[in-house]
Structures are given as structure tokens and as C-alpha cells.
Amino acid sequence: MLRIRDISVKFGDTTILNRINLELNAGEIYGIIGPSGSGKSTFLHVLCNIIQAFEGEILLNEETLHPRKHKIAFVPQHYGLPDWQRVDRNILLPQRIRKEDNSEHFQAHYRNILEGLDLTGLTKRFPRELSGGQRQRVSLARAFVQRPDILLMDEPFSALDAITSENSQELFLNLWKENRTTTIFTTHNVAEAVKLGKRIILFSPAPATVLKVIDNPVHTQEKTNDEWEMMRFTQEIKSHIKALWE
Predict the structure, then answer these.
(1) Is the CB of residue 211 less than 8 Å from the CB of residue 244?
(2) Between residues 160 and 131, which one has the greater pLDDT?
């Protein structure tokens, strides 16, 4: 269980997050929808300890969340891949930083990640030699290979064209089903939130508060239901947004 209690962030005199309270179950995917500038990225930056100046507390299984005690994987909007590192070294960067073991069991896990994200033949390329979709999958591989306690993704598919985005979402879901990592992602795309999120969190316009947490009836841990149900629920979420943001 991830408990987020009264999280507030100010930059100078400007309040960005205003008393965010959430309780998130382990092993589920949560999608955050909010207007531009509402504080979605700031919220993820607090969770991954990029922003340390905040009020409130964050508890993972009743312990204060901190990268020294917990594995927190973060996929930024523009992938965060050092250009001078080949794909394999980009993916294994957290492993090298933590000086963790390189056992046969880990190597099997690493190969499974590569296969699951269709990266096996790309490990010796540099990021500049990859398409946007391939770079995005490398960033996902780097996150999953850590076996994180929490996976945070900041609009992970927004820079991709529609077909590439859809393919990447499917690869992500397939890999997530194998790992069941507690995942929080932000998006502007309601259909994307419905496809990926077991629960959908609506943020208010800035300063961000939690307006509503909505269970997604068309999301299951094994598959997403038919397109008609997804379209219907997507329209329902849009209606909530219109009512709450206006």
C-alpha cells in the first residue's frame, strides 16, 4: 500500500500541489489526468525524490518512501537516455549504479525484458540510432529491469505517433502483467488512461487537488474488454472532466 498524505508543494508564493491525499493498492496501475500545468509532473517528481521540498508524507508499506530504501523507477517524458551509452548500458545503468549482482537469474530476467519489449537486436545501438518508439521502449526496459517497488511514468507515450503509441502500450501491458509493478502514470489522453489504468485519478487545475478517483470497469488484469465498452467509459470520464474542470 502506498499512502500519500497531505502532499503540498510551493514554488515561491505559487502553490503547485495542494494537500494531495491518496491510498494506492500494490500491484495496480493508476492513471492521472489533469490539465496542462496542473502539477502532474511535479507530483511524480515528489514521489521519485527529485523534488524534496514538500509538506506531507509518503509511506510505502508504512515506511517513509525513499530511494535509499525502495526501488523507484521513473520514465520521464523524453526518455532520459544518455546519448553516449549504448542501449544495453542504458538499460543496465541502475544496476551498475547500485552495484547489484549480475547473477544468472538476473541475466534471465534481463533477456526476458528485452524480448518482451522487442529490443533484443538493438542492444549495441546508440539512442540517436533509434526511432522514438524504440527509445521509449529502452526507457521502459531500464525501469522494469530494476524490479522496482514503484514505477512512475510521465506521459510516456505522448511523443509517439498513434500506431507506435498503441504498439508500445500493448508491449508495456504485456510486461506489466508478468511483473505486477505498482504503476502511476500521467497523461492528457483519456483513452490511454482508460486502456492502461485500473483506477483513474482526476487532478484539478492548478493548484492540484484530487477531485475524484474512478474505478475502471473495462480494465482487468488479464485483458481489456471490447472497444465499445472502452469508448463508452472514455466518454464517461470526459463527462466527469467537463463537470469538474469547468
Answers:
(1) yes
(2) 131
